[in-house]
Automatic annotation (TrEMBL):
CDD domains associated with the record: AmyAc_GTHase (cd11325), E_set_MTHase_like_N (cd02853)
Name under which the protein is recorded: Malto-oligosyltrehalose trehalohydrolase
InterPro entries: DUF3459, GH, GH13_cat_dom, Glyco_hydro_13_N, Ig-like_fold, Ig_E-set, Trehalose_TreZ, Trehalose_TreZ_E-set_sf
GO molecular function: 4-alpha-D-(1->4)-alpha-D-glucanotrehalose trehalohydrolase activity
Length: 583
C-alpha cells in the first residue's frame, strides 16, 4: 500500500529493466529509470495522490502497477495513486459481529438502473426496511470492458472505474454504515481475469501450466510465492482499513494452490483479526468452499483456520431439488427428505460419504458441539446457482409464490446465517445469466464457446444459452424495481419472516427438534425447531395433515391449525409457537 511518504516501487523479479512512466495532467509522459533492489525495483518519485503512472518493462510494454489503487482508463491504462484521506462520517460505527448477520448479495452493475455505487446507495433504505443487516458486493476489482460478473478481475488493489471508482466505493460503505448495514466484499484470489492481467510480466504471480478452469492457478505455495502472499494480504488490509470494509468473502478457496503448513486463509484471518483489534470494529472472513471441510471454520485453538463462516451449498441443493424436482448435474446427489434433514442437522450432505456426481467419497463430518451453526451461510439461491443455469433463470421465474416463500421460510427459520440474492425478496422476473464484455473479441468467442460446452454437458440446449458478451444479456439482468401485487406479497412475506427470525430467536444454536415424513412425492413434510417454536412445511403439491398444532405465528397460505395437528396447503408452511404433537 502506498502513502504520501513512500516512493513508487514494484516487485518485478523477471525483467532486466524497469522504467517508471508518469503522466502529467496535460497528458505528457515522462520516463524515470528505476534501480534494482533484490527482486524489487525502486524510484525516487513520491506516490502523491492523483499521480498517473505505469511501468515500462524491458523497454517494451507499459503496464499498470499490480498494486495500483485506481485504473481510471481501465486495466489496459495507467494506474493512479488515490488520496488516503476521505470525509468519512462513520466514526460511530462499531461494526457487526458475525453471529446474527443477515447477508444480501448484490451485483453493483445490475442492482440499480444506474449500475453504480451511488445507484446502490439509493437502495439501502430498501435493505434496512426488509430486515437485512449486511450488504455483500460481488467483486468490484477492474475487468476488461464495461460489463462483467466481476470474477474476471485484475489489479486486486483497485476498484472498477465504471462503478464509481475508489471514492464511489467509500461513499457506499460510509452510507451503509450510517444506516446500520455492514459491508462485505467478494474477492477472488484463485485466478486472474484474462483481459488486462499484466502480472506475468513482473513476476511469478501464477503457477504456469496449472489451471483452475477459469485461469492459471495463483502462486500461493510455489517458488517466490512469499511476495504473492504478501500481495494478497496487503490487498486484504487495504479493503479493511482504507475502505472500512467489514468483511470479505473469499471466492472458491478449494481452487487455491495452498499446500503449505500455514494456509493463506490463516494469514488473511490474522490480518482481519489484527485490524479488528486495533480499530475496535470486528472484521469477518467468509469462505466459499466445495470441500465440505469444517477445518476452515474450526477455531485456531482446535487446529482450524478460524474463519467466521463458509458458504454451504448442500442445504441449498437439498431444498432446491425437493421444491423444483430438478436432478441434473450436481443435483443428482440430492432429492430426498432425508438429505434435507441431514443438512438441517449438520450443514453437510457429504461427511466422508460417497457422491455419485463426483464419483468418489467427499467431505468430512461436522462436530456440532464445537462449531456454531451461524458459521454456515445458507440461501435459497445465489449468483452461482442462478448463473450456472443455461438461461440464468431465477427460481422465482419457475416457482409459484407459495414455493418461493416456503423455501425462504425453511432458510430463515434455520439457525444458519441466511443470505438473500438481490431481487429474490420480491420474486424478481429478471434473469441473472453470466455476462462479460472483454476488449478482445477472441476472448469473447472463447468464453461464449466455453459456456456452450459447459451447458451441453449438463444436458441444456445450446440455443437456450445467451451470448455472454451481448449487451442485451447484461441488460436482461438489471433488476426491475416495479412490482405487481404478487411480487409485493412475496416481499411482505420475506419482511415478516426476517422480523420473526429475530423476535422468535430462530438464530439459536443447533436445532434440537426434528420430524419428517417422506410418504410419496405428493405427501412430504418436514418439521424442525425447538420446544417453544417450530416450522412445519409441506414439500409436496397436495394438501397434507401434519401431526403438529399450536399457536400460528405466521403463514403465507391458509392452513387449518388445530390443537394437535395442522392441515397445510400444497407447498404451505406454518410457523408455530407452543407447538404440540399429536399423541
Amino acid at each position: 500500500m502506498m502513502t504520501e511518504q513512500t516512493c513508487i516501487a514494484v516487485w518485478a523479479p523477471r525483467p532486466e529493466r524497469v522504467d517508471l512512466i508518469t503522466e502529467s495532467e496535460d497528458g505528457q509522459r515522462s520516463t524515470h529509470p528505476m534501480r534494482r533492489d533484490g527482486q524489487w525495483w525502486r524510484s525516487d518519485v513520491p506516490a502523491t495522490p492523483g499521480l498517473r503512472y505505469g511501468f515500462q518493462i524491458d523497454g517494451d510494454i507499459i503496464a499498470p502497477d499490480p498494486r495500483t489503487q485506481a485504473l481510471p482508463d481501465g486495466p489496459h491504462g495507467l494506474g493512479q495513486v488515490i488520496d488516503q484521506d476521505f470525509p468519512w462520517t462513520d466514526e460511530q460505527w462499531t461494526g457487526r459481529a458475525f453471529p446474527g448477520t443477515i447477508l444480501y448479495e448484490a451485483h453493483v452493475g445490475t442492482m440499480s438502473p444506474e449500475g453504480t455505487f451511488d445507484g446502490l446507495i439509493s437502495k439501502l433504505d430498501h435493505l434496512v426496511s426488509l430486515g437485512v443487516n449486511a450488504l455483500e458486493l460481488m467483486p468490484i476489482q477492474p475487468f476488461g470492458g464495461t460489463r462483467n460478473w466481476g470474477y474476471d478481475g485484475v489489479s486486486w488493489h483497485a476498484v472498477h472505474e465504471g462503478y464509481g471508482g475508489p471514492d464511489g466505493l467509500r461513499r457506499l460503505v460510509d452510507a451503509a454504515h450510517g444506516k446500520g448495514l455492514a459491508v462485505y466484499l467478494d474477492v477472488v484470489y484463485n485466478h486472474f481475469g484474462p483481459d488486462g492481467n499484466y502480472t506475468g510480466l513482473f513476476g511469478p504471480y501464477t503457477s504456469e501450466g496449472s489451471a483452475t478452469g477459469w485461469g492459471e492457478v495463483v502462486n500461493i505455495s510455489g517458488p517466490d510465492s512469499d511476495e504473492v502472499r504478501s500481495y494478497i494480504c496487503d490487498a486484504v488490509r487495504q479493503w479493511l482499513e482504507v475502505y472500512h470494509i467489514d468483511g470479505l468473502r473469499l471466492d472458491a478457496v478449494h481452487a487455491y494452490d495452498d499446500t503449505g503448513a500455514y494456509s493463506i486463509m490463516e494469514d488473511i484471518e490474522a490480518v482481519a483479526e489484527e485490524v479488528g483489534a486495533r480499530t475496535g470494529v470486528p472484521r469477518s472472513i467468509v469462505a466459499e468452499s466445495d470441500l465440505n471441510d469444517p477445518r476452515l471454520i474450526t477455531s485456531a485453538e482446535a487446529g482450524g483456520y478460524g474463519l467466521a463462516a463458509q458458504w454451504t451449498d448442500d442445504i441449498h441443493h437439498a431444498l432446491h431439488t425437493l421444491v423444483s424436482g430438478e436432478q441434473h448435474a450436481y443435483y443428482e446427489d440430492f432429492g430426498s427428505l432425508e438429505h434435507l434433514l441431514l443438512t438441517l442437522r449438520s450443514a453437510y450432505r457429504f461427511q466422508r460419504s460417497y457422491s455419485a456426481f463426483r464419483r468418489r467419497i467427499h467431505g468430512r463430518p461436522v462436530d456440532i458441539r464445537r462449531i456454531p451453526a451461524h458459521r454456515f451461510v445458507t440461501y435459497t439461491t445465489t449468483h452461482d446457482q442462478t448463473g450456472n443455469r443455461a438461461r440464468g433463470d431465477r427460481p422465482s421465474m419457475n416457482l409459484s409464490p407459495a414455493q418461493q416463500v416456503l423455501k425462504a421460510a425453511v432458510i430463515l427459520s434455520s439457525p444458519f446465517t441466511p443470505m438473500l440474492f438481490m431481487g429474490e425478496e420480491f420474486g424478481a422476473q429478471t434473469p441473472f445469466p453470466f455476462f462479460c464484455s472483454h476488449t478482445d473479441e477472441e476472448l469473447n468467442r472463447l468464453t461464449r464457446e466455453g459456456r456452450y460446452r459447459e451447458f451441453a454437458r449438463s444436458g441444456w440446449d445450446e440455443s437456450t444459452v445467451p451470448d455472454p458478451s451481448a449487451e442485451d444479456t447484461f441488460r436482461s439482468a438489471v433488476l426491475d424495481w416495479s412490482w405487481d401485487s404478487e411480487q409485493q406479497s412475496i416481499h411482505d412475506a420475506y419482511r415478516t419472516l426476517l422480523h420473526l427470525r429475530g423476535k422468535l430467536q430462530l438464530a439459536r444454536p443447533w436445532l434440537t427438534e426434528f420430524d419428517v415424513d417422506g410418504g410419496d412425492d405428493h405427501h412430504r413434510w418436514v418439521s424442525f425447531g425447538y420446544e417453544d417454536v417450530r416450522l412445519i412445511a409441506n414439500l409436496s403439491d397436495s394438501p397434507i395433515e401434519v401431526p403438529y398444532g399450536g399457536h400460528l405465528a405466521y403463514t403465507f397460505t391458509s392452513p387449518e391449525v388445530r390443537e394437535e395437528n395442522t392441515t397445510l396447503d400444497a407447498w404451505g408452511f406454518a410457523l408455530l409457537t407452543e407447538p404440540r404433537r399429536a399423541a
